[in-house]
Design brief:
alpha+beta; binds magnesium ion; single chain; 3-stranded antiparallel sheet; 8 strands; Heat Shock Protein 90; 158 residues; binds adenosine-5'-triphosphate; 27% strand; 5-stranded mixed sheet
């Protein structure tokens, strides 16, 4: 059983800004455009440090993936379906080859010279402790990871 996170009311925008400041140096170094496309009114119950860590891991991976591309962008967007708030991190990198998509979330799996291979598995555990999930979207045109947070964790906001 995963440990339960301590949930508190948070603004998604603040959680994301925290992640963006954590990756800002790398993003600048890689001349990456970060496109923020979230509903700024969203409030949810979460452990803000932990959720921010997940977004940081995903954006960090995107920055690594696009560093040699001509078009360098990472988009973070939000939308809702009937059951979940979905936060997507999408990048203009060349994607993930089919041979490794089943392995990327395993602890210590890395294709990087100095990677720990723990970013995605850590993210998955954090989200599971929030009753939420992390999915790689096989069908998307660009590289896309979806964080699915059940609507029960959303606060009604103005
Ligand atoms: N956006 C992405 N584009 C391309 N490949 C990715 C992307 N995100 C993850 N990967 C692949 O998944 C692997 C595992 O990612 P994970 O974040 O768990 O570890 P890592 O990035 O290798 O190491 P660390 O997070 O310590 O830097 C990466 O090595 C890479 O091959
Ligand atoms: Mg990583």
């Amino acid at each position: 059983m995963k440990k339960k996170e301590k949930l508190e009311p948070c603004k998604l925008n603040d959680v994301l800004d925290h992640s963006l400041s954590a990756v800002s140096q790398k993003a600048k170094r890689h001349e990456t455009q970060i496109i923020k496309n979230i509903d700024k009114n969203i409030e949810l119950s979460c452990d803000p440090q932990e959720l921010s860590k997940v977004l940081t891991h995903l954006i960090d991976n995107s920055c690594d993936a696009i560093k040699d591309e001509y078009h360098k962008w990472v988009e973070v967007k939000s939308h809702e379906d009937s059951e979940n708030l979905i936060l997507s991190v999408i990048d203009s990198g060349e994607g993930i080859s089919h041979e490794i998509t089943n392995s990327i979330m395993e602890p210590y799996f890395t294709t990087k010279e100095r990677g720990s291979g723990l970013g995605l598995s850590d993210s998955k555990s954090i989200l599971e402790a929030h009753n939420s999930s992390l999915e790689y979207d096989y069908d998307a045109d660009n590289t896309k990871f979806d964080i699915k947070i059940p609507k029960e964790l959303l606060k009604e906001s103005a």
